Amino acid sequence: MKFPRTYALHEIAELLSVSYIGADDFPVLGMNEIHVVEPGDIVFVDHPKYYDKALKSAATIVLINKEVECPEGKALLISDDPFRDFNALTKHFKPFQVANTSVAVSAKIGKNTIIQPNVFVGNNVVIGDNCTIHPNVSIYDNTIIGNNVTIHSGTVLGASAFYYKKRPEGYDQLLSGGRVVIEDHVDIGANCTIDKGVTGDTKIGQGSKLDNLIQIGHDTIIGKKCLIASQTGIAGCVVVEDEVTIWGQVGTNSGIIIGSKAIIQAQAGVTKSVEGGKVYWGTPIQEAREELKRLASIKQIPNILEELKKLK
């Protein structure tokens, strides 16, 4: 998420009431999670296990809960609670906007696009040409939808990320300031939920088709011309490359990559990244051919035991 202008380090420190290490005018351009940070971004870290990763990331401003040696060319914001302060930045730069109408005045809707009754279109939403949005679809603020897109009833675009920090008093949510981006020629079935990014975009690529009852987690990227069948749940920060087929009731771990033209068969648990161009099945996921060979071998065990009995 980029800020509306370049801020000086001291301005961000004053906003958060924290100390800092670095030049007063060190430029701050935005904030992002570690997997999508760029120079000029703030990244937060609140556990020693991840200090090194954050300090060596592309981010040039690190919001951290310990005063450490500052890497060359970077700056530090020293906070007693980086998670809280990262949320404070989201609240400041992407505050929640109350809706007053079913279709926000700031929304932009293209030519020949049909918006059926009881659709909610939030602030700053952009919908392209020749789209059909069926009844009871909810499109949250800042969502971008391309041309020739169909979205069926009950689907929600842009709900918050399922991302929490456990505290003694309960769970504290990491606020979401990102977007959902739907590219051209995408079809989305009924009762799907696509969560917005925490700071970046959750994206559905051009020509992809989603069945009913599908969950797509925050910051996940679905490539072009993918097919995803019903009751599939894809976790946050997943990359599904182009022309992947995912059949029904598949679930995935977060932060994995599914390679281009892979086929994930029904009810598989995608527990790790998998190469493209292969067929997968089972939990934990394996190449289908190898897994079926293994199962065929297991079925031979009773026959082998019978043969062993005869030899005694």
Characterise the protein shown here:
There is one protein chain. The protein has helices spanning 9-16, 51-55, 82-93, 288-299, 301-311; strands spanning 2-8, 19-21, 27-31, 41-45, 61-64, 75-78, 108-109, 114-115, 120-121, 126-127, 132-133, 138-139, 144-145, 150-151, 156-159, 164-167, 170-173, 179-182, 187-188, 193-195, 201-204, 209-210, 215-216, 221-222, 227-228, 233-234, 239-240, 245-246, 251-252, 257-258, 263-264, 269-270, 279-281, 286-287. It has 312 residues and is α/β, with parallel strands linked by helices. It folds into 2 domains: 2-93, Udp-n-acetylmuramoylalanyl-d-glutamate--2,6- Diaminopimelate Ligase, Chain: A, domain 1, CATH 3.40.1390; 108-291, Hexapeptide repeat proteins (UDP N-Acetylglucosamine Acyltransferase, domain 1). It is flat, with a radius of gyration of 23 Å. The N and C termini lie far apart (72 Å).
- Under CATH, the homologous superfamily of the largest domain reads Hexapeptide repeat proteins
CATH C-level of the largest domain: Mainly Beta
What would the CATH topology of the largest domain be?
A: UDP N-Acetylglucosamine Acyltransferase, domain 1
- Percentage of residues in DSSP E strands: 25-35%
Counting helices, strands and paired strands, the structural category is: alpha/beta
- Report how far the terminal alpha carbons are from each other: 72 Å
Q: What integer value in Å does the Rg equal? A: 23 Å
Average pLDDT score: 96
Per CATH, which architecture of the largest domain? 3 Solenoid
- Counted up, domains total 2
Task: Compute the number of helices.
Answer: 5
Strand order of the largest sheet: 8-11-14-19-22-25-28-31-33-34
Shape: flat
Number of strands: 34
- Spans of at least 5 consecutive residues whose pLDDT stays below 50 are none
For the biggest sheet, the summary is: 10 strands, mixed
In helices, the fraction of residues equals 10-25%
